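Provenance

Sequences were taken from public entries as deposited. Structures were produced by running a predictor on each sequence independently, with no templates supplied. The record for Probable DAL1 - Allantoinase from Cephalotrichum gorgonifer is shown for reference.
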Amino acid sequence: MSALNTEYDLVITNGICVTASDVAAWDLAIKDEKIVLQAPSGSLAQANAKRVIDAEGGYVMPGGIDCHAHLEEPAIFIKGSTGRSADSWETGTRSAVAGGNTTVVAFAPQNKSQPSLLTAVASTHALATGNCYTDYGFHLLMSDPNPEALDELKALKEDEGVSSVKIYMTYTALQLRDDQILSVLLGARQNEILTMIHAENGDVLNWLTDQLEAQGKFAPKYHSNSRPPILEAEATNRAIALSSLISNTPILLVHISDPSAASRIRAAQSAGQPVLAETCPQYLFLTRDDLDKPGFEGAKCVCSPPPRNKADQDAIWTGLENGTFTVLSSDHCPFRYDDAVAGKKSCITEEYPVGRFRYVPNGLPGIETRLPLAFSAARLALNKFVEVSSTNAAKLYGMYPKKGAMIPGVSDADLVIWYPEDALGELSVTNDMLHHDVDYTPYEGRKVRNWPRYTILRGNVVWDRDGGGIVAAKGVGRFLKRGPSTLGRIWETVREEGPLDLESL
Ligand SMILES: *[C@@H]1O[C@H](CO)[C@@H](O)[C@H](O)[C@H]1NC(C)=O
Ligand SMILES: *[C@@H]1O[C@H](CO)[C@@H](O)[C@H](O)[C@H]1NC(C)=O
Ligand SMILES: *[C@@H]1O[C@H](CO)[C@@H](O)[C@H](O)[C@H]1NC(C)=O
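Predicted structure for Probable DAL1 - Allantoinase:
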């Protein structure tokens, strides 16, 4: 393609491109939804293009990829709670794009009373189709690994393009026994599906919850006491052990908050086990003190695992810097605060005026604030920031290099353009400026130094902060059929090892 006579759809000039490996002053040309050319800075300013965006020296990065979000899910998590996630596929992806994301992978929940996995995929498609502002995919949230469901794993991956499942070691309605976890890991291994695991010991936390309630302790802050770090470390260790028993089947420990869980993960990685891990902004920016506010206010920050303390935040940053954590996701799991039916206040009754922590819907909104907060903290090197918020997610979940990269001729033109350094001064996060369908943000008043100025999905400007905000129609986002993970050589190693050999145990 000659740079001289091609008409491009879009040219971005005068930006500093940042990928997981480079920081470089390049212009980018985009045609037919792909990046087609990287050229020296300024050289494309006069190119023949339908539109030219002058980045004015701001950073240009692959669009954020958020692979942990709960959108439009039924009240499946806590028995006896009516809490439902507040954001739909439409409002969740709208908020994501305004925060610089171009891809979201959220959950297709399997209903225990409707045990087919493929049915869960079909009902989630019905909710998402035509409604999204980002490209999107599904992880299958497995609550019932019955033999029929396990038989469907092959079709799930090969026909539906769903190459990851999520399982729980907690939440009575979702918690799997160890033998069920082994069955999922074996099925996942045979089909090259990544297993995401929520590791907290559900039996122990239920017992602690009963003990706390017996002592009359109901306020939101006791959520932390019911889920001390040892529960996370124990379950993490158990998940690692179960994966090793199934010939080192790859697992991803989601939303790690506790440094001792992180160090167990690190030890498994050092021993060569394919154990990957995720952390989230709430473990970098919130602490257990945020749950200890007057009245019911602390419920805004109730999520699981709970935010820990200041020193723990530091260890989690270290884990992001040193590669223990592969990805930084939001675990956007929003509930409205002032909503007595489906929101945080659904656990308040006359008898329990500060609610009961065991029934507070667990989760925080964060899809829009993940990148600005993490970027503004300026703790991660620029390349590392792109790696954990975009590139690694694309590799881990089978979307690379179509997503998470800027490779001419190969990568989708999914980009986030930031303001030039210091152009915004200091900005306070307020809920008013966000695009989710939630009545609060746990980061209200938090200062950030930058914000996504443009978000571009396959060459379409979807977010233009100064030029109208959300400027594309819903439905611009497309479903992504995903392949196996290409991070490291995790599946190659499994193929070399062959099927599970029980005689080797
Ligand atoms: C799940 O099952 C419950 C109970 O049978 C039903 O009310 C609900 O609509 C089902 N949800 C989905 C998504 O199929
Ligand atoms: C890397 O980070 C993890 C998690 O915080 C920590 O356990 C480990 O000691 C760190 N390793 C090095 C070499 O710094
Ligand atoms: C992407 O999503 C996360 C969380 O879902 C959000 O906090 C972040 O700001 C968004 N932007 C980017 C560029 O990742």
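Residues 74, 111, 113-114, 123 surround 2-acetamido-2-deoxy-beta-D-glucopyranose (ligand 1) (CB under 6 Å).
Residues 64-382 form a domain with the TIM Barrel fold (CATH 3.20.20.140).
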